[in-house]
């Protein structure tokens, strides 16, 4: 028997408003740059009232001001669009492009255990922070640690199979 793996859906944005009378949605994207969200044709919208979710096909999209406008197939008027106001937009994890070696999506680092080269467990990656210079791992263990995500420096290696990030880091710091 083969192992069935549940499809992972990543939150990539939110429906924040309605636009016009033909079912267009105003969207706030979590992606960088924002327009990257429009590259994905299948969106899973989660009903904000908890009435489930629906996978819809992106028909058209464009940037407007600081946000995006999106037209989804089957959402053809303002009333149909209103149902999705406040919805979380998710895309399938498998739809993300494969990254070159040494590059990682944040979502793939979250939940990995962090330990020093000497084998001292520091905790688990809770989330990452973008600082401009480099990303920072926020590691929750017996206390919170902020470790710069710099491969070949503070981060020695990432072993996604084993679920571990090995760091060159003083446990007292």
Strands across the major sheet, in which order? 1-2-5-4-3-6
Please give the CATH architecture of the largest domain: Beta Barrel
Which CATH top level class of the largest domain fits?
A: Mainly Beta
- Unreliable runs, pLDDT <50, ≥5 residues? 1-5
Q: What share of residues is helical? A: under 10%
Mean pLDDT: 89
Shape, please? elongated
Number of strands: 12
- Number of DSSP helical runs: 2
CATH topology of the largest domain: Elongation Factor Tu (Ef-tu), domain 3
- CATH homologous superfamily descriptor of the largest domain: RimM
Radius of gyration, in Å, reads 20 Å
| Secondary-structure-derived class | mainly beta
Number of structural domains? 2
Strand content: over 45%
What summary fits the major beta sheet? 6 strands, antiparallel, barrel
């Amino acid at each position: 028997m083969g192992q069935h793996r549940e499809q992972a859906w990543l939150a990539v944005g939110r429906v924040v408003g309605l636009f016009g009378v033909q079912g267009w949605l105003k969207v706030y994207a979590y992606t960088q740059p924002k327009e990257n969200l429009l590259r994905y044709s299948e969106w899973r919208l989660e009903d904000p009232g908890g009435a489930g979710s629906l996978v819809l096909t992106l028909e058209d999209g464009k940037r407007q001001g600081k946000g995006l406008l999106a037209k989804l197939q089957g959402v053809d008027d303002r009333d149909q669009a209103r149902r999705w106001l406040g919805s979380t937009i998710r895309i399938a994890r498998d739809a993300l492009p494969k990254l070159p070696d040494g590059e990682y999506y944040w979502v793939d680092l979250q939940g990995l255990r962090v330990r020093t080269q000497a084998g001292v467990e520091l905790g688990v990656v809770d989330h990452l922070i973008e600082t401009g210079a480099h990303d920072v791992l926020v590691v929750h263990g017996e206390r919170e640690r902020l470790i710069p995500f710099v491969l070949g420096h503070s981060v020695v290696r990432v072993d996604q199979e084993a679920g571990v990030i090995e760091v060159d880091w003083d446990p007292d710091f």
